[in-house]
Write a sequence for this structure.
């Protein structure tokens, strides 16, 4: 594979942020094409990013020999068909969160990906902040000790103008509320740090905006490693904040980035149980090499993976795990009961967590 990969970005809302990130990595990526149903967005993005191709037709991108990677940034309900078409055309695929709208759809994508020539990279760009990567370094070195408790807070604000975009706030098109659309990043970090989830109990409410889906959530989680976690989410905060705290037997670790949408970035705070542990933390950080963060951080790592045949930085299994947590959250809230993972294919919410599509009623 040639070193410089030709990329097409589809969907030019958050897709513009993806284009900004590819543009910071010109030695790795050529922005070859932009695609949106809205012709004016295509023309504008093609001019800004000097893309050779601007098209409103997704199928134009699938012709052989034009691009290496299709990056899908369209609304959630469109992801599965676009991902499957791109994989069938033999292309590598990047796909925004949420990958898709049910475990059943996710497993159909897993099956399609197994026989595909290209790879599929779900987006979880919050992982690639240097503060969080320092915690991963300490974990790799075995310095953290036994995990006790994680507290994950996503306190953001969304007002009426956000829901002017017709697909938002509705079960059929957004597929979920704050747990799916906003807090999915912070909740992915819980599993990135502490591994698989064992059980979930969730209370959800819609209190901030007149929408179908939830905009407040209080969730308790038991991890397979025995530690506990609380997940708190609102879209009604008057001051936006994302805060991640991980309490281990040998240290407490806290995100201190003030940017609500970049909690993984430096600075993070690390406090060891003893001066000797603090010294070991400082010694570990003397070896730490900062990397690009956020979208550029994920794209640089995807490029390294594709050109050296090494593992992808975010896997399909990671995206599926995030959807399994979402399924458990919605099932728990709807049934008023805790939910134990993993969820089997005959689980009543496996084919859909969306109230008017699922195969059961309360
Ligand atoms: N990773 C993040 O931090 C982050 C942030 C925002 C949004 N997102 C995700 O990105 C996706 C898009 O969200 P958004 O806020 O940019 O939405 P948006 O509505 O602002 O933009 C989506 C664009 O996709 C276009 N589109 C829709 N269907 C299309 C199709 N079939 N072919 C080509 N273009 C099509 C629309 O015309 C629109 O311009 C969602 O899945 C959302 O959850 C992720």
């Amino acid at each position: 594979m040639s070193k410089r990969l030709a990329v097409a970005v589809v969907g030019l809302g958050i897709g513009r942020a993806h284009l900004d990130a590819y543009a910071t990595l010109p030695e790795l990526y050529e922005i070859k094409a932009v695609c949106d149903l809205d012709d004016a967005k295509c023309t504008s993005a093609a001019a800004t990013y000097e893309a050779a191709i601007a098209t409103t037709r997704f199928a134009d991108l699938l012709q052989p020999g034009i691009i290496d990677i299709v990056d899908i940034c369209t609304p959630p309900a469109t992801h599965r068909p676009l991902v499957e078409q791109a994989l069938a055309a033999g292309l590598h695929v990047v796909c925004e969160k949420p990958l898709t709208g049910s475990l059943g759809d996710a497993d159909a994508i897993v099956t399609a990906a197994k026989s595909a020539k290209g790879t599929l990279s779900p987006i979880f760009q919050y992982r690639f902040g240097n503060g969080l990567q320092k915690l991963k370094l300490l974990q790799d070195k075995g310095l953290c000790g036994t995990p006790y408790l994680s507290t994950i807070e996503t306190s953001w604000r969304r007002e009426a103008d956000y829901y002017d975009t017709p697909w938002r706030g509705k079960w059929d098109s957004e597929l979920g509320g704050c747990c799916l659309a906003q807090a999915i990043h912070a909740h992915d970090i819980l599993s990135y740090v502490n591994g698989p989830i064992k059980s979930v109990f969730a209370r959800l409410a819609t209190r901030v905006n007149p929408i179908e889906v939830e905009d407040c959530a209080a969730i308790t989680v038991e991890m397979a490693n025995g530690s506990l976690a609380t997940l708190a989410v609102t879209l009604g905060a008057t001051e936006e904040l994302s805060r991640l705290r991980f309490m281990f037997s040998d240290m407490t670790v806290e995100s201190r980035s003030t940017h609500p949408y970049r909690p993984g970035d430096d600075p993070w705070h690390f406090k060891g149980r003893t001066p000797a542990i603090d010294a070991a933390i400082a010694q570990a950080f003397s070896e730490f090499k900062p990397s690009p963060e956020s979208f550029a951080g994920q794209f640089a790592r995807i490029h390294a993976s594709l050109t050296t045949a090494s593992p992808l930085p975010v896997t399909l299994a990671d995206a599926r795990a995030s959807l399994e947590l979402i399924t458990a959250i919605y099932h728990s809230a709807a049934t008023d009961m805790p939910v134990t993972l993993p969820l089997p294919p005959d689980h009543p919410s496996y084919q859909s967590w969306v109230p008017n599509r699922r195969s059961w009623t309360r």
Notes: The longest helix spans residues 316-335. The mean pLDDT is 96.
